[in-house]
Amino acid sequence: MTESHAHSPVTEEFIAEWRNASYSCFSSGHKFCREVCPVMQVTRNESWTPTAFHANVVAMEQGELTVEEVAEDYVNCTQCGACELRCPNTLFTGDFYRFRTRTVDLVKQMRTLAVDNGVHQPGYRRWNMLTDERTHEPVLGEVPVSQEHVRDWSAGLDLPIGGETILFVDCEAAFYRTSVPRAVAQILQRAGYEFGLMREQWCCGGPAAEMGYRDQARRFAEHNLADWRASGVRRVLVLDPHDYITFTEDYPNFFGDDYDIEIVLVIELLAGLIEDGTLRPEIPVERTITYHDPCRLNKRKGIWQEPRQILRSIPGLTFHDVDHVTQWSYCSGGGGGLPVEKPELTAKISASRLDQAAKLDVDTLVSACPWSERPLSEAGDARSVDVVDIHELLAESLGIEVGGSRGGGGGV
Amino acid sequence: MTLAPELSDRVLGELVDALGGEYVLTSKVARMNRARVPAPFPVHRWRERIPDLVVMPGSTAEVAEVLRVAHAHRIPIVPRDGGTGLTDGAVPERRGIVVDVKRMNDIREIDPVNRTCTVGVGINMLKLNEELAPYGLIYPDDPASYPCSLVGGRTGTSGWSLIGSRYGHSRDLVLSFEFVLPTGRVIRVGDGGGAKVSKSSSGYQLKHLFMGHQGTLGIATEATLKLYPKPEAELSPFWAFPDYEAAYRCVQQLAHAGIATFAGAVLFDEWKVAYLRRDDEAYIPQPADVRALVCAVAYGHEDEVRAGGRRLMRIARDAGARYLGDEISQGDWAARHDRYATPLHGRTKSGQVAPMSWHCEDAAINYTELPQVRLEWHGIVERLRERFDVFDDWGMFCYTSADTGVDYLTEIDVGIWEQNLDDDAWAAWVDAKRDIAEVALRYGGSISACHGSCREGEVDLVPMELGGGYDVMLAVKRAIDPHNIMNPGKYGLDRAYTSGGDV
Ligand SMILES: Cc1cc2nc3c(=O)[nH]c(=O)nc-3n(C[C@H](O)[C@H](O)[C@H](O)COP(=O)(O)OP(=O)(O)OC[C@H]3O[C@@H](n4cnc5c(N)ncnc54)[C@H](O)[C@@H]3O)c2cc1C
Ligand code: SF4
Ligand code: SF4
Fold first, then answer.
1. What's residue B330's pLDDT?
2. Of A72, A177, B326, B472, which has the highest C-beta tally within 10 A?
3. What is the pLDDT of residues A184-239, one digit of tens each?
4. Is residue A96 very low, low, confident or very high in pLDDT (cuts 50, 70, 90)?
């Protein structure tokens, strides 16, 4: 060990914490994870692979690299989780001991360490500053984002505020793809499922956490939890897979045992309502589709059956399915802050996802994640493949006039 | 950034002009991550291996331009593809420029009629086979590193395939390739001149020469590959034995059976079984009287595999084997084949669990010599372990290399506690590697069946293995690479420029 770099105390602490976990990847180094990584697929750059992310920690321990030197590389990850699933270390010991190679967590924590050391990525910093100012993510493009507008998407739906069960709508859906929350809300109304909207909803804080702005993420989480508590919320419905991760992973980390809010994924709820006959999709939707497994459902949460159950219940669809394991290597590129710093990579990843869809001779790619739908739609336009949200499709089959926008200015 | 003196701004400028700035990587992070392969090494010496620069060319023309620049300025070049090689081939010994060819991963042609495809060398076999599936075809180069090694590295190492007894190994499956010589000149090498020819008697057989050279002669950029029908059926029976001798006899009877769908057989020795039982979470525990295992694999059409499988089963039963059942057979083959890994730990002498890395020493050994080689190898690792408590014997596998059972890829897996690997332990390990290689040669084998023999220790014995052939190697090296820019330091080829090499 040389003394070439003196790390800051937080960095030393980080290295001590990650040393062995990173070693178990470094010493394996077999790179079974590499070809499923969406960033690797489009860049072929070995610096931006899971094993490099772990090896850098080992190099830091050896005094060879600093957080300043490595920080920028960690931008190149959508936190999709594919590498963890494909890692033989996860597969093996995972079967028996639930061991998981923790690359997503490492990327998140390394980004946090960078911020803690005052190392910022310009795009991330701006994004989080604007989020802080507006209490909502800036959302790419010309979209008015502010507290006054957060419920605009629900115009005319007559939704109550508060109640035991509320629907949480992520920023991208609330301000950009408003057709998604409109579809969800109207399907739930049709089912007679009681719910309201949040009193003062702020961004969930997940994106800030993903980009390393942990203190900000925590402040937002505290606001939301306090608001839920104050208005007697017991249950939060989530339509966005990213929020689902935030509420089921970040919030419990922040609040520990105190956190007693039930989190319900709308997809799972709807699959249940279809199964028990409450919802009967009857209007045929004549489309030839394939389904895009959102990373945060399929790879990170193991949820891939329910969306397929919903799709199979819709009459008229011709469904060319691609199994969820094959889809470990698919991604939209929209997650983990990648489009904020590297929009060109997001576009390439989406384009290659659409190439896979186009090979199946489909006219429609169905997703279940609003954050994926913008880049996928852009890539779909170039290939004449329509990108539709699963909730939009279900609403159509239930005869619901959804309204809203599938992109662009938030109005109805 | 610190560039070596010879890498002046001018060189950097020429490379940026040729490739675009995005693909000339100077950051220390980028360089460190290309100074490493999975084989364990003393991590405190990582810095000794770091290249000055990394380039990521996107075409043969760009590779040629990089080599022209390097040739003109006498700069060391290290080709790198998947970086999964286990003999440090892709690790720079003299700094210089790492030429990372992973961007060249396109499929340029699929010719279903002649059953070939032509690809950039940065493509991975699993990914390629996903694209070939709709044609009902596969490219059956199937190492345990199938999901991660790439076609260029398979060429650079002349790799060994798990199902090679049925389909052949990389050298049989790569029909021809485009190759950039150290001067920047581009040639096509194959069996004769035609890109899709599998057997030629025209001229010298250069294909073999330009495979397995570990990047010391030039850089392959595009390869034309031989394709097979995608097998309908895969059979992988596992059998248990009470002792090694019975298993040893059985494995050769399986190999001798002459079954057309036979793709390979594997023998696990007592050390391997004990280790799996002790530390491998994926191993499905067997009763204590199971001391050795054999598995055979057959690939092909359903009806053929079924018939061949019945014969294999009968042979094994007659040899005293106990069949472990379908579930274990499929699960174990998946563990060894589809997701090759070893546990993340071994044991110290006192039995304490320690995080250890996997190292595989491989050799090509004739069937008749396997039992003796096995005992001597285990003896070497045991003596090593007595002196340094960072090594653990993880047992041996022997795999048929050919359909007749003539020779076996023989490997001993050694756990190394890399975090505690100091200079003394490393020096002892290098000695042990040399001893392991010496045993292989004493029994008439070859130092490596699969990975190559470039690493410290074993590499010292390569001249002894090849005899006069090594002198030819020196002469060839000097003729093709007059300034020793291609992966200098590897295989002791520096000698070509001082003494020797006269044939
Ligand atoms: C878990 C695991 C299992 C393995 N199992 C097997 C196995 O069953 N069979 C087997 O054969 N190997 C096996 N290996 C070793 C390794 O995968 C092979 O040696 C493989 O061929 C290396 O390919 P690569 O693309 O990673 O090449 P690299 O490691 O990048 O390079 C290997 C060598 O080839 C040279 N090279 C790379 N690209 C080119 C090029 N375009 N032109 C010229 N030279 C080039 C490099 O300089 C280097 O010397 C295994 C490795 C691991 C980690
Ligand atoms: S993440 Fe897993 S598969 Fe990838 S290099 Fe590390 S240990 Fe190997
Ligand atoms: S989480 Fe996804 S994007 Fe990030 S390194 Fe793993 S596979 Fe790549």
1. 86
2. A177
3. 999 999 999 999 999 999 999 999 999 999 999 999 999 999 999 999 999 999 99
4. very low
Tokens of A202: 């702020």
pLDDT score of A1:
42
* Ligand 3 atom nearest to A53, measured from its CA: 5
Q: Give mean pLDDT, residues B138-159.
A: 97
Which atom of ligand 2 has the smallest separation from the CA of A103? 1
* Integer CA distances (angstroms), B112 to A1, B116, B135, B190, in order: 55, 7, 7, 20
Q: Which two tokens stand for residue B213?
A: 């050279």
Q: Taking CB atoms and an 8 Å cutoff, what residues of chain B touch A20?
A: 355
* ipTM given for this complex: 0.94
DSSP 3-state helix, strand, coil percentages of chain B (rounded to 5)? 40, 20, 40
B403 CA → ligand 3 middle, Å:
40
Chain A residues lying within 8 Å of B124, measured CB to CB:
35
Q: Count other C-beta atoms under 10 Å from residue A383's C-beta.
A: 12
Q: What is the pLDDT of residues B240-298, one digit of tens each?
A: 999 999 999 999 999 999 999 999 999 999 999 999 888 877 677 788 899 999 999 99
Helix, strand, coil percent content, chain A, rounded in steps of 5: 55, 5, 40
CA-CA distance, B483 to B214, in Å (whole number)?
A: 17
Rounded Cα distance between B328 and A14, Å, is: 41
Give the contacts of B390 (CB within 8 A, at least 6 positions apart): B354, B356, B416, B417, B420, B421, B425
What is the amino acid identity at position B428?
A
Assign A89 a pLDDT band (cuts: 50, 70, 90).
Answer: confident
CB A180 within 8 A of CB A173: yes
The answer to whether A35 contacts B343, with C-beta atoms less than 8 Å apart, is no
User: Given phi > 0 = left and psi -120 to 50 = alpha, else beta, which region is A290?
Assistant: beta
- Span from the CA of B345 to the centroid of ligand 2 (angstroms): 15
3-state helix/strand/coil string of B377-403: HHHHHHHHHHHCCCEEEEEEEEEECCC
Token pair, residue A195, equals 């719910």
Cβ-Cβ contacts under 8 Å, B122 against chain A: 44
Ligand nearest to the CA of B93: 1
Average per-residue pLDDT for chain B? 94
Separation between Cα atoms, residue B67 and residue B61, nearest integer Å? 10
The chain A residues in contact with chain B (CB within 8 A) are 1-2, 20, 23-24, 27-32, 34-35, 44-47, 52, 55-56, 58-59, 62, 64-65, 69-70, 73, 86, 88-89, 91-93, 95-97
> The tokens of B145 are what?
């590193």
Which of the residue ranges B4-13, B323-332, B449-458 has the most confident prediction, judged by mean pLDDT?
A: B449-458
Note the pLDDT of residue B280.
Answer: 76
